[in-house]
Amino acid sequence: MTAAMDEQAAERSALRHALSELDARLADATLRGPGAHLRFEPWVERLRTPAAAFLRPDLERRLARHVDADDSFARDRIAHVLAGACGAAALPALLCARESDRNDDGDTLELTLLDLFSAWPEESIRLVLECLGSADPRTRRVGMWGVTVIDFGGARYFGLVADAASDPDPQVRADAMSTLSTIFGVGDPPRALAVLLTGARDLAPEVRRSAVSALGSSREEEVTDLLVSCAEDADRWVRFCTAWSLARRPGPTVRAALERLAADEDGDVRDAARTVMGLQVAPG
Known about the structure:
The chain is an all-alpha fold. Among the domains are: 45-100 and 107-116; 219-279, Leucine-rich Repeat Variant (Alpha Horseshoe), CATH 1.25.10. The chain has 16 helices and no strands.
């Protein structure tokens, strides 16, 4: 028994040393850049073992520090270690990291979360549903993302996302609009369309932008009529999104709306409308 305890103590000491070495390398800016993922892989993989689960508090503190510093590379290395060492127990910290850091930087935090969702589906859905019911809008946004990933196609939880379109926080509502334009919207297409039509009239411009963009793939006449009216929106980015969503729609009212947008006071709106007018299909 003493030999086993000595072996465990030696292994823990080696793992602490590996974490210290990883810290030192993450702090060395010269090791970043092309090929950095491969350079760090030996230290990351050394720590991705259940034997390193005792380091969970240390790893969670490091993860939070890198998120606060907006260091996505270090964040993702530590997140990957935490997931490998702790499994499902890493989910709360990783979901929190995504809440506080929403960089669209192409790195691997979301991939790490997806692996955990796949390995522990019941615990994952329990936690993301808790996030969706949080009092913090940032946490609700993470919960919505998690629900749409786990419930691909909206078969089980479509109603929760549709209800989020009435959330008091405009960014949560905007996320709901974007989500309903994806394959998740097939969970209830008529309700998804109704929610998007309402969203295009929301008081918050970020919600209107998301809804108008989402409606670009819908060809119903009522959608076209609404988009034509959105060409007069006070928000320039709504008008910009409107121009693109009017692409390849026939009819004189659409043409007239695009002509108004092509003479808009905003240069980005004008450029979008002129590009779209060049894509329009001639009648007949």
